[in-house]
TrEMBL record:
Keywords (A to Z) from UniProt: Oxidoreductase
Pfam families attached to this UniProt entry: DAO
InterPro entries to which the protein is assigned, alphabetical: FAD-dep_OxRdtase
GO molecular function: oxidoreductase activity
PANTHER family recorded: OXIDOREDUCTASE TDA3-RELATED, SARCOSINE DEHYDROGENASE-RELATED
GO cellular component: cytoplasm
Organism whose genome encodes this protein: Zizania palustris (Northern wild rice)
Keyword Chaperone belongs to the record: no
Domain FAD dependent oxidoreductase: 16-362
Protein name: FAD dependent oxidoreductase domain-containing protein
Keyword Oxidoreductase listed: yes
Lineage: Eukaryota, Viridiplantae, Streptophyta, Embryophyta, Tracheophyta
Amino acid sequence: MLPLPAAPAPAAPPRRVVICGGGVVGACTAYFLSTHASSPTVPTLVEKSSPACAASGKAGGFLALDWCDSTPALSALARASFDLHHRLAASLDGASAYGFRPVHTLSIYLSSEPEPASPHPLLPSWVNPSAPATPPRELGTPDTTAQVHPGLFTKAVLAASGAEVVIGEVERVIVRNGHVAGVVVKGRGVVDADAVVLAFGPWSARFEMIKEVFDVSGLKAHSIVLRPRESAKITPHALFLSYHPEPSAKMLEPEVYPRPTGEVYICGMTKDEEVPDDPLMITGEPDSIAMLHKIAGKVSTHLKRDEGAEVVAEQACYLPCTNDGMPVIGEMPGVKGCYVATGHSCWGILNAPATGAALAELILDGKAKIIDLAPFSPARFLKKRSRRGI
Ligand SMILES: Cc1cc2nc3c(=O)[nH]c(=O)nc-3n(C[C@H](O)[C@H](O)[C@H](O)COP(=O)(O)OP(=O)(O)OC[C@H]3O[C@@H](n4cnc5c(N)ncnc54)[C@H](O)[C@@H]3O)c2cc1C
């Protein structure tokens, strides 16, 4: 009998993993690499400014189980992430560490000319009874919607990962014989790596290696954070508003998220605009900030500055958006060991956990089990480009 050929030895999981970008996607990837069941690997994370300095620190932090259900791949990512958020909160004491809590969620069509009205039973007592022009609608219950403080969440998972954090700007990826070998960090030299994860959010568009494969654009969005004088009166109700500032004006869709810290976060007012090079140079535009204050005052007297609400922050940041509206998660075509994760648009805080968990499995086991990553592969853009002859 002929001897059977020996089975190829499984490739050893990479030991030196470098994550580039310290937003929520980079932080969650670090966490799931270091807590992997069979090959835990503590990565190095290189961040240009400071962890959670951009959208991951300035987002709303709203989480929903089933709001991505209309797209099957996104539904799987969101549902797995929603579940992981609950598990993370249980193991990292999310309620006190980063304000994790289930919330009620309402849709309110905001009246432009409020008239005296009696309170609707769904409406929390801190919302002006005259604020809704039509009866409020329930969009989510504490079983299906929740929240975190996004900056505290990002920093908590990063700290729990034990990753070494290097502050510096990643300039390029070093590739040898088609395999990643490290990254060049401006002013610091080379950090060697067997695997690299590019998690630059909207700055992905500026990174040559990514730009050659797909586009990422930044959508600027504004937010304010207020601390009402009687913050104990503000209940855990997230509000999705529709508002016409004038009859002929474009409809605005701001969102209001009370936080367990006693603060209330309000965001909206988006604008297509190129991402500035330095995350710390991002500032809000006065007109957009003024409109958010106007809306806050219409929603609740507690949110009016002249009723004692303290202004904690007035800010802006960028959503990372792709041309087909889907995140990009997977190995870069033609470069073994180089992975990318970006384009999470308005759901990056929700979807970062399953993104990080899937990437950790792909890097350490060779295949993601938690979700099917095929629909998120960066290779999908190569097919489109070659069809267009680019
Ligand atoms: C106003 C607003 C509200 C939002 N609300 C929600 C919400 O309620 N729920 C939800 O799920 N999502 C929400 N989002 C979306 C969410 O914030 C984003 O999808 C998510 O934060 C993107 O995370 P990221 O890690 O990909 O990118 P980012 O948070 O942008 O992080 C990228 C990081 O990369 C760093 N970087 C860039 N270039 C380099 C370089 N060359 N070298 C090293 N580091 C570099 C940057 O400094 C930055 O820290 C909101 C977004 C906005 C703007």
